[in-house]
Amino acid sequence: MAEVLIKPSKLSGTVTVPPSKSDCHRAIICGALSMGKCTISPISLSEDIKATISCINALGAETEIKGDTLTIDSSHLFSRCKADFNCNESGSTLRFFIPVAGALGIEGTFTGSGLLPQRPIGIYLDTLPKQGVECETEGGLPLKIKGQLKSGTFEIPGNVSSQFVTGLLLALPLLDGDSKIILTSPLESVGYINMTIDTMKRFGVDVEVTDYGYFVKGNQHYTPQDYTVQGDWSQAAFFMVAGALGGEITVNGIDPNSTQGDKEICNLLKRFGADVTTTENSVTVKKSNLRGIDIDASQIPDLVPVLAVCGAGATGVTKIYNAERLRIKESDRLKTTMEAINNLGGMVAQLDDGLLIQGVGSLNGGKAEGCNDHRIVMASAVASIIARNDVIVTDSHAIKKSYPDFFGDFKKLGGNVNVINNR
Q1: Residues 6 or more apart from 9 whose CB is under 8 A from it?
Q2: Order of strands across the sheet with 208-209?
Q3: Above pLDDT 90, what percent of the chain?
């Protein structure tokens, strides 16, 4: 269990955030399904991306990494009829590969670690057997599947996780017939679906958006591409909030025209009262007097922990709602966000579907439990900016899941971070 001690300091300067983990997942899978040779760059070898690479290897793809470029040769993708898929702690990897393996007719066993075996997959258990894929499970992982996925109509809710929709979108073009995805409830995190559709289109596959959901023609073919991965708005948000709380930070390598839903952080910080300036590939955020706001988190769940920290540093009340899905992430993020901020001297209360944050302007400091959740660890580190005393964050190793260089970048901006326990 790794712990870091952070001495309060204002961050300032320029940082380049890693490539988008979400974009990279999708590009790697599309590249593998192209049945040819592709390059994906730049990539950051977070634990989640390693999991996705290992799963395309399990399908028969050959991969090579040189510097920040991943080369995929998937000319022998259909050479295997059985595969073991270790998804580690990556929900995206798991939910994307289940229908893809079904579309390829792979007899597969899916395993995972951390809390992934307990995270929901029931939507597939309800839907895929109706379309030819047998599922054997005791409710979570391990999950065994076999059979050939058949085209047709897939009715799924849109408010559990957009990852189920993405998984089907990636798989259905490979089938012989046309398919429909009918959403039985409003779609949340629509930005991630738009990213999926955009990435698929760049690999030569089309999806039609309809009033009921999505229409996907069968017998389509992914075509090999050399793909450039977008910068990650989800990770940029941590340093943008750091700029709003104290200092002036420019984040490079992010596109304001991206399909990533988390680019909404720009508008949210402006509503908080921060000074935000955007260019074609960067955002600069300067400290200002912040005031609490109401935030509908239905489309931006990953931003909630750091937005709660921003609310703690503001005046007045910040209310975050429509965030109930956060209870089934790497941790119960409503609970763990509340506890981390309150342990540092904040005033946060849980709602059924969100958080109520009383702005306190500054925090005492103390010990924040990272709960083996990368976003809780990074949000707690940002909270140190408004602390009067030292902050200890546990489970600091969790950043390897998505942003392995986070603390290195934190230090480059003037942060004072020291590992005090690295068992």
Answers
A1: 384, 385, 414, 415, 416
A2: 153-156, 179-183, 213-216, 208-209
A3: 90
Residue 160: pLDDT over 90: no
Positions annotated as catalytic residues are: 302
- Please check the confidence at residue 78 and state whether its pLDDT lies above 80: no
Residues 195/163, Cβ–Cβ less than 8 Å: no
User: Which of 315, 300, 297, 394 shows the shortest CA–CA distance to 355?
Assistant: 297
Question: Cis ω on the peptide bond leading into residue 305 (within 30° of 0)?
Answer: no
How is residue 319 written in tokens? Answer: 């209310």
The answer to whether 283 and 236 have CB atoms below 8 angstroms apart is yes
Alpha carbon distance 368, 361 (integer Å):
18
The H or E element containing residue 366 is strand 366-368
Cβ neighbors of 257 (< 8 A, separation 6 or more) are none
Amino acid at the residue 242: A
Q: Which residues pair with 110 in a beta bridge?
A: 85, 143
- Of 102, 110, 93, the C-alpha closest to 127 is 102
Task: Name every residue whose Cβ is closer than 8 Å to that of residue 234 and which is 6 or more positions away in sequence.
Answer: 20, 21, 22, 260, 262, 302, 303, 402
Q: What are phi and psi of 81, to 5 degrees?
A: -110, -10
d(CA 169, CA 185): 17
For residue 330, pLDDT beyond 90: no
3-state secondary structure 173-231: HHCCCCEEEEECCCCCCHHHHHHHHHHHHHCCCCCEECCCEEEECCCCCCCCCEEECCE
Cβ-in-10-Å burial (0-12, 13-18, 19+) of 291 comes to middle
> DSSP H helical segments within 366-416, as ranges?
374-383, 406-412
Count other Cβ atoms within 10 Å, centred on residue 131: 21
Which of 55, 85, 88, 89 lies closest to 72, judged by CA? Answer: 55
Q: Is residue 265 within 8 Å of 295, Cβ to Cβ?
A: no
Is 284 or 79 the better-scoring residue by pLDDT? Answer: 284
Q: Give residues with Cβ within 8 angstroms of 141, minimum separation 6.
A: 87, 94, 110, 111, 112, 116, 117, 121
pLDDT at 231: 95
- Contact at 8 Å (CB) between 99 and 89? no
More confident residue, 386 or 256: 386
* Predicted local distance difference test score (pLDDT) of residue 188: 87
pLDDT, position 25: 98
Q: Provide the pLDDT for residue 400.
A: 92
